[in-house]
């Protein structure tokens, strides 16, 4: 009878076979060889194996040129990487990592063959990000030695490795692979077996919603991608990322997630099937959501959907002076943005005292810019002089643009727009900075709904480059053209979107945050594991729980409720854990406790 793996001490994982030498397999092989492991690269295609060797030669040559390794070290790395076309070459491996196409049939065939080749104590790892590790393990002669080892692309650069255990996996196998990941300079996160695991489980739902948003013609591909890069600090927009991952691969991952969750948010958007079946799979085919210079190229080229670079066809209105209503951080930030760009600004609040306090806050912000060498003392003084504080909205009588940044309360905003309607001169543009409320409801509070538009700035307004320009079905073309020109004039990037809950950024961001809360609620992974996975594996500047505590759990819950009410999708219902924390007064950093506790200021 075979000895159970749990009773067998594992030898160090020194010789490692990598089965499948595509982009990911080649990257994993490079990481292993550079870390001193003997690497057996296996691919049924001799051409693919040769391509992997050439890729390693090229990457190590660049490293040597930059002085990161010596020529002798480069020679040692290359000598440690040998390629074969037969699985029999894995016979002496301590660990086998399969990185074959996302297909149960292919992966199960590989594992069945390996059962008859490798030693009893050899650990077998699958690089899948979509398929069930348990199902693959159950089909193996030794299921206790099978686990998931999910690297992220590009493997040499990305720090995250998800180590996936099934209910059958022996602790010794997990421990050995975890130690290996640490020795490779990676940050391992232990997760259970469910489609997408942590990082892809959150990432692909977000990508799917972005594809559906584009398919609905709500916003252009360029605006969706720019919004998420500039509004969330992401390295790539979702549609460009889908092209990089492969539209067909994304569809496979989502199919597996939907089969497990039956959550409509994971049901692949029809456009993913249409592009996949047409062979438009992204960069690798030369065309997906975007068109590329050649298959495999990262260079986007103009196609029939590329926006024209010409200016607006409709002439805009002249804007010399701007009125900003409000005294909070957003209002003072927007006033600073316009004043820096040379506009005369009236900063009005409910009292003269509040308006003066808001101007003082701007003065401190400008002083910080001077201290950091971003502007001169003279420029800061001139900027502050352009801002006139006022204790009444009557001061907006002569402004060309009146913009509100008051509380996110529809009745408060409607009353303010009714005041704008009485006070502002004919032809003045009336704008709201709302992030979640219907702009048209503000417009209907006036006698001139054609002059009303949304200008959703992001906090902190002086630093964040994005403005979502939200036109209603009643907004005049020249108002829309004027606001886009204004955004450019104040050095912001405008993106167009329609008047529906969440616009672009919040409609994509908050379901992702909500799904992260559900993961914790279901005890699938910890706060720290999820935050680490999304920072290291998804390129997010902050993990979801770090971000929720910064934004405020009450603010997040309010936005999620608006999204759920608007779209009526059960998958958008706020996670009960979030509701419970808000009910308990745990609102994030501002109260000293949210998902984490913070030192009192």
UniProtKB/TrEMBL annotation:
Gene Ontology molecular function: 3-hydroxybutyryl-CoA dehydrogenase activity; NAD+ binding
Domain 3-hydroxyacyl-CoA dehydrogenase NAD binding: 15-193, 322-499
Source organism, top-level taxon: Bacteria
Pathway: Lipid metabolism; butanoate metabolism
A Gene Ontology biological process term: fatty acid beta-oxidation
InterPro entries: 3-OHacyl-CoA_DH_NAD-bd, 3HC_DH_C, 6-PGluconate_DH-like_C_sf, 6PGD_dom2, NAD(P)-bd_dom_sf
Pfam family, one: 3HCDH_N
UniProt domain 3-hydroxyacyl-CoA dehydrogenase C-terminal: residue ranges: 196-292, 502-598
Gene3D superfamilies, alphabetized: N-(1-d-carboxylethyl)-l-norvaline Dehydrogenase, domain 2, NAD(P)-binding Rossmann-like Domain
Keyword terms: Oxidoreductase
Family statement drawn from the similarity comment of this UniProt entry: Belongs to the 3-hydroxyacyl-CoA dehydrogenase family.
Name of this protein: 3-hydroxyacyl-CoA dehydrogenase family protein
Origin organism lineage: Bacteria, Bacillati, Actinomycetota, Actinomycetes, Kitasatosporales
